[in-house]
Amino acid sequence: VEKIEEQLASLRIAKRSMLREECAYLLDIDVSKPAHSESSRFVAVSCSNKSIKVYNRETLNFLREYSSCPGILNGVRFAHTCDSIVFSACSDGTVKCWDIRLATEKAVQIFRGYPSNVFISFDINCSDLILCAGTEKVEQDTFLVFWDARGITNCAGTAKEPLGVYSESHNDDITKICFHPIEPNLVVSGSTDGLVNVFDINKDNEDDALVSTCNSDSSVSFIGWSGKDYKQVYCMTHDEGFCWWDTAQLDTEEPITLLHVLDVREVICAENDSLCYLVGGLYHEKADKLFLIGGTSTGNIHLIGCGSDGLSLVGTLCGGHSAAVRSFCWNLTDECLLTGGEDAQLLLWKPGAVERSFAKKASLKIASSVQKRVRVHNSSLKSRKK
User: What InterPro entries does UniProt report for this protein, alphabetically (predicted)?
Assistant: First the structure.
C-alpha cells in the first residue's frame, strides 16, 4: 500500500483537454480496453449537454462527438473486445452504440426498451454478450432491461428488442448497474430505494437470479466490486455514506458487512480542505486495496483508503480543477488517472509528468471570489499517513 501511495504522490497533470465553446459538466469517463499488450487508444466522456466526446488517450486531442438530443445520455462504456465501440444509455428508452472508426455521427446500433422506459444507468458484461439498463420509476414500475449484445463488432444498424426484464427486486429508480469484472453472469444494481442487489443472470427467473440483497439505508449513487476474485460489493450514497459487503460470507455464519459509514465527510478531515462529496471507488488488484475518490467544491481530489478498521485519507491532488470533480477513470496498467469536472475540463494525471500548457488555469466555470482566495495552486499530492 505504501508503494501505491508513493505512485499517487508522484501524479502530476500531463495533459489538459482543449476547452470547447459550450460549458458542460463531464459526468462519466471510460477508456477503451487495450488490445493485447497495447495501451488504450481512446477516452470517451459523457457530458451534461447531451453529448459524448471522444479524445485521443495520450494527447487528449478531440476526435469525435455524438449527440442524443432531445434525450439525455447517462453513462459511457467501451466494449471489451473492440476498442472502437462505445455505448451510452439514453432517457428516450434506448441504449445507443457508436463506432469511432466511422465518419457518421449516427448510432450504428440501437437497443430499444419498452415504451415507458427512461434509462438512467447501464453496463455491458465482460464478454460483451449481455447489455443491461436500469430505468427511472414510472408509476409503480422499475425495470432492469436486458439485451443480447452479440454482433456489436459488425454493427448491423438495426434496433434490437429486449431479451426480458427484472421488475420485482427494486421499487425506485435504478441509479447504477455494474457487471462483475471477470464473471459475465454476475451483475449488481443499486437504487434510490437503498437496496444493492446481486444477480446471477444465468438463472431461469428473477427470484432464482437474486443472489443477495444488501441495504445501504440510503439512496445509492455508486456501486462496484472489490476484493480477491471480486467477491465483495461496495456502494456510496447520495448523502455521502459508504457501505462495503463480503458476498463470500453469504453461506456462512460470519456477518457480510465489512464497513458501514453513515457520512464519510465526518470521518475524513483534510487540513483546511474538507471533503465535500464522493465521486466513486476503485479496487487496486495488485495492492488488494479498495480506494474511494472524493473532492471539494474548489476542485481538489481526495484519495481515501478503505480497510475493515475504517477509512483514512491517503492524499490530495491539488491545482488541477477549479470546480467540483464529477468523474474519473484510473488506469491501473500505467497508473494514470483521468478526471473530469464542472469546469468542463478533462485532465490526464501521470506519475512525474510536467504540464507544458501555459493556459492551464483557464476555466469555463467562473470561480467565485471566495474560491479564488482559497484555491491551492500547486500540483503536488500532499501525503498524509493514517
Answer: WD40/YVTN_repeat-like_dom_sf, WD40_repeat_dom_sf, WD40_rpt, WDR89
Contact 320, 299 (CB under 8 A): yes
**φ/ψ (deg, to 5) at 230:** 55, 55
Which range of 104-108, 168-172, 253-257 scores highest in mean pLDDT? It is 168-172
User: Cβ distance 97 to 107 under 8 Å?
Assistant: yes
Q: Of all residues in the chain, what percent are helix, strand and coil, respectively (each to 5)?
A: 5, 45, 50
Peptide bond into 70 cis (omega under 30): yes
Asked if residue 382 belongs to a domain, the reply is: no
The cell 480543477 sits on which residue?
A: 321
Residue numbers of the domain that contains 223: 1-351
Let me know if residue 287 belongs to a domain: yes
- In whole angstroms, what is the distance from residue 148 CA to residue 131 CA? 7
More confident residue, 3 or 74: 74
Residue with cell 437503498: 194
pLDDT tens for 268-326 read 876 667 899 999 999 998 889 999 999 999 999 999 999 989 999 988 999 899 999 99
Q: Are 41 and 32 in contact (CB under 8 A)?
A: yes
The number of distinct structural domains making up the chain is 1
Contact 149, 137 (CB under 8 A): no
Q: Cell for 265?
A: 465527510
The torsion angle over the Cα atoms of residues 207, 212, 214 and 220, rounded to 10 degrees, is -70
46 within some domain: yes
CATH number for 98: 2.130.10.10
Judged by DSSP in three states, 82 sits in coil
Distance, CA of 265 to CA of 336 (rounded, Å): 26
The answer to whether position 210 is within a domain reads: yes
Q: Which grid cell sits at 62?
A: 478531440
3-state secondary structure of 229: helix
Judged by DSSP in three states, 259 sits in strand
- Concatenating the DSSP letter of every residue in 105-161 gives -S-SEEEE--TT--EEEEEE-TTS-EEEEEE--BTTB--EEEEE-TTTTT---SEE-
| Cell reading at 102 | 466511422
Query: What are the Cα distances from residue 88, in Å, to 58, 267, 377?
Result: 23, 35, 35
> What is the distance between the alpha carbons of residues 327 and 342, in angstroms, rounded to a whole number?
10
Nearest-angstrom CA–CA distance, 277 and 268 = 11
